[in-house]
Amino acid sequence: MKTGKTLRAFIIATFSLYAIPLFAQKTPSLSDPEIASVALTANQVDVAYAKIAQEKSKDPNILEFAKTMTKDHEGVIAQAEALAQRLSLTPKDNAVSKQLNNDAEETKKTLNAKTDKDFDRAYIDNEVTYHKSVIATVEGVLIPQSKDAELKQFLQQVLPVLKTHLDHATMIQSQLPK
Predict the structure, then answer these.
(1) Which of 44, 64, 71, 128 is buried deepest, with most CB atoms within 10 A?
(2) Which range of residues forms the domain containing residue 49?
């Protein structure tokens, strides 16, 4: 009974923490440097989750997914940093990027406390929720508020990768035992 309540609380907390478009019940207003910070932070957070999975999971599908997340998100980080440098755009910390980092610390603690199949389920459930939220934020907040055409184009190019990650995570989620 306790495990079910804990998992339910984790899922509810995770969903509410990553509901960035609902941030403070209104869409946050972000400058391009703040958008760059949110994009970098979101990718760094998912790399951190993937590294936990690579250390804790024994499931080949989870391990392969985590490897893909690390590779893809580190690639996006490198591209974002190169773009920021080319545009002379210094990412600026803001309420959204700070909230992402704070929420990630809580999620990492929760993931680190799990083992075996409970870990695999918690990790992949988090990945599904996280990617849904990040996609919604990129589509509903970051792209519409980007002033710089190259930054906007970069975000638009990253979107299909995020959607592929979501599809992959959803497929793995459907294959895990309930």
Answers:
(1) 128
(2) 2-175
